[in-house]
Amino acid sequence: MTRPGDERGGRLTRRGLLGGMAGGGLTLLVPGRARTEETPAMPPSPAPGLPRLDLHAHLDGSTIDAVAALGRERGVRLGIVEHAGTKENQYPVVLSNDAELAACLAMLEGKGVYRGVQAEWTDWMGCFSRSALARLDYVLTDAMTYPGKDGRRVKLWEADAPNRVDMADPAAFMDRYVDWYVRILEEQPIDVLANVSWLPKPLAPAYDSLWTTARIRRVADAAARLGVAIEISSGFRLPTLGWLRVAREAGVKFCFGSNGRYPKMGLLEYSLKTASDLGLKEADLFTPAPDGRKAVQRRTWGPPWAVPARAEESDPVGRALAARRSTRFPVGA
Q1: Per-residue pLDDT of the chain (333 residues; tens, 9 = 90+)
Q2: Which of 34, 143, 167, 234 is paired with 302 by a 20 to 30 Å CA distance?
Q3: Are the CB atoms for 267 and 258 separated by under 8 Å?
């Protein structure tokens, strides 16, 4: 079967995965719910008191003028995130230094959108100065790129992921996966955690049993403690309502995202309906922080990057983090 998103060198992307599920007849394996193509226009909001804000939109092959016009048409303020990190990450656009980031920020200036990045892997901070990152409105990342058996990055949505990551024991994988979530939250200066609770295809049918309350609480408690918002994704229709209820009890703030590229961005029906079902108010939602309070400004990071020694460095997650201990990160004035 042809894999969705095969348009770039045979590599499946997050957006290719979403687009293929919508347009190619694939379904997202979440118990009791199939991912179906969303209507091009937003229906009346099920949560009229909440801001219509999509903080997870990608330009990819579109233009900022077209995307900004679409956001205005749908009554949704968009946050544009380009991928950021080393060139080892393969996406249509990967920002890898201060000059590339500055050019992207200049392109988005005055367009009525928030300006963010989707940070990739564990080494993205070393590509930029602190002062350059502080010009962003927010930083978003996810846990879908994971250390393989050899410690190298694996995109969990790609077809070869089950061969490169040990998933034979689902419970053991989930414990490592939750560890990965928590380490990302604790060790990266991010504002938003996206695509939360997504599972690789072999494990997705067991979503409800694998995402135990204890595992959810570990992720949610870390997010609440560190001031990281959890995205309610209309693209993946995740997390589930039960997952989000546990997160709300932990005091987490939330935001909405489509993970969309033109013309899929700004479609927030699931996000808004789920927020309404949770009884969320505007105070429960994240909006980009003012200067001085962004994660890259308030979190401790910089040279040398301090990663605590771990006894389990023989495991892939531990090896991936241990490899960073000698890295030095540039800090701007």
Answers
A1: 222 232 333 455 565 566 544 443 333 333 333 333 443 455 566 667 899 999 999 999 899 999 999 999 999 999 999 999 999 898 989 999 999 999 999 999 999 999 999 999 999 999 999 999 999 999 999 999 999 999 999 999 999 999 999 999 999 999 999 999 999 999 999 999 999 999 999 999 999 999 999 999 999 999 999 999 999 999 999 999 999 999 999 999 999 999 999 999 999 999 999 999 999 999 999 999 999 999 999 998 754 333 333 334 445 555 554 444 433 333 332
A2: 143
A3: yes
Locate the domains of the chain by residue range: 50-322
Write the class of the CATH domain 50-322: alpha beta
Decide if 275 contacts 281 (C-beta within 8 A).
Answer: no
Residues 6+ apart with CB under 8 A from 161: 154, 155, 200
Using a cut of 0.90, tell me whether the model's pTM lies above it: no
Q: Give the C-alpha separation, 79 to 137, whole Å.
A: 9
Cβ 102 vs Cβ 132: under 8 Å: yes
User: Which H helix or E strand runs over 94?
Assistant: strand 94-95
Q: How far is CA 275 from CA 96, 138, 170, 216, 285, in A?
A: 35, 21, 30, 18, 9
d(CA 292, CA 314): 39
Alpha carbon distance 330, 8 (integer Å): 32
